[in-house]
Amino acid sequence: PVEKLASLLGVSTGTVHNALGVLAYLGMVEMRPGRGTFVAPFQPAMRAQATALGRAQLEELVELRRMIEVEAARRAARRPNAATAVDVFDAEWRLRFARAGGGPYAVVEADLDLHRAVVRHAGDPLLSALHGLVLARLEPTLLANVRQWISGPNGDELRELHDRLAGMVHD
């Protein structure tokens, strides 16, 4: 499956192994030699731990999310239909509206909705599952650090990423 995932994402098998290693390090998957990689059982302590992600872990998760979403946007763009365009366009406008005055938590929720919409329309259950794992780990940290996340140095980069993702699906 590593080869298939690498092919789906358009990356090397080494990159997939590294990403799975990050997910294992974060406690999201269990790697069992000779048997495969499995989603780790949910542990309530995991949510509390997620809010305390270190900067390096956070950056790794954001990069993994970015890889998944870019591939999802490519796939969604290859399957154009009105429902996809409307859903992504709607999510994009909800994010713009939230940025214009909806408050920081509304911005994070609208941001996550846009990312979910792009992945949803890729039509790939594996990408959706991986994306769900990453967001489950990332979302509490984003919410716990919402003000610094949306107004800090990442703000302009995030807006550019959103525009590119939505543009890939619209065009």
Could you name the key traits of this structure?
single chain, globular, 9 helices, mainly alpha, two-stranded antiparallel ribbon, 2 strands, 171 residues, 5% strand
Outline the low-pLDDT stretches.
none
% residues in beta strands: under 5%
What share of residues is helical?
Answer: over 70%
Distance between termini?
Answer: 31 Å
C-alpha Rg (nearest Å): 16 Å
Largest sheet: 2 strands, antiparallel
Structural class: mainly alpha
Number of strands: 2
Mean pLDDT: 77
Order of helices and strands: HHEEHHHHHHH
Principal-axes shape call: globular
List the strand order in the largest sheet: 1-2
- How many helical elements? 9
Give a verbal description of the structure:
It is a single chain. The protein is mainly alpha-helical. It contains nine helices and two strands. Strands 1-2 form a two-stranded antiparallel ribbon. The mean pLDDT is 77.
Give a topology summary.
Layout: H1 2-9, H2 13-25, E1 29-32, E2 36-39, H3 44-50, H4 55-78, H5 82-99, H6 104-120, H7 125-144, H8 146-151, H9 154-170
Antiparallel strand pairs: 1-2
Helix pairs in contact: 1-2, 3-7, 4-6, 4-7, 4-9, 5-6, 5-9, 6-7, 6-9
Summarize it.
This protein is mostly helical. It is built from 9 helices and 2 strands.
